[in-house]
Amino acid sequence: MVKRTSFERDGCPIARSLDAIGDWWSMLLIREALIGTSRFSEFQKRLGLAKNILTVRLRALVDQGILKTAPASDGSAYQEYLLTPKGRGVFPILVALRQWSEEFDERPEEIATILVDKEKGKPVRKLELYSQDGRPLSAGDTALKRRPAGKQGKRATA
After folding, report:
1. CB burial class (10 A; 0-12, 13-18, 19+) of residue 158?
2. Which pTM does this prediction carry?
């Protein structure tokens, strides 16, 4: 496998995020975990991913704190891969990617599923970005501002 450049120390949060979850197999593994897949064999069967690649990707997601391993819930000798809070935090990213594809895909009729609210059974509304005072924002309504020296961003606890 080709070694890629690490963006772990980059000042851009998008680059840092892509360093952790930026390849398509990792995103698909997280998608699978969000819908309940937890065992190596299930991931392999659902994605058709070669075992050596799957092993590397799962290990990387565990190392990044996105997945954790735990003894199988059925008491068998297997282990399960479970999402951490950091891993569950990827959900809105996957929803945004899904909605982008639904809007711009050249063959939307081939998309096999729709995302619905479990309680109401209705499709999920399109994600939108809002200002602190509730105004809808587009890319043109935002700007990047340099963080004052010494100020740390909000850090999630695991």
Report:
1. exposed
2. 0.83
Condensed to tens digits (0 to 9), the pLDDT of residues 82-94 reads: 999 999 999 999 9
Helix/strand/coil (H/E/C) assignment for every residue in the chain: CCCCCCCCCCCCHHHHHHHHHCCHHHHHHHHHHHCCCCCHHHHHHHHCCCHHHHHHHHHHHHHCCCEEEEECCCCCCCEEEEECHHHHCCHHHHHHHHHHHHHHCCCHHHCCCCCECCCCCCECCCCCEECCCCCEECHHHCCCCCCCCCCCCCCCCC
Q: How many domains, in total, are found in the chain?
A: 2
Q: Can you tell me the distance from the alpha carbon of 25 to that of 7, in angstroms, rounded to the nearest whole number?
A: 18
Same structural domain, 81 and 99? no
Question: What is the span of the domain harbouring residue 83?
Answer: 13-88
Residue 106 CB neighbours (<10 A): 5
Tell whether 95 and 83 lie within a shared domain: no
**In DSSP terms, which residues pair with 69 in a beta bridge?**
81
3-state secondary structure of 24: helix
Same domain, 68 and 100: no
pLDDT, tens only, 115-128:
999 999 999 999 99
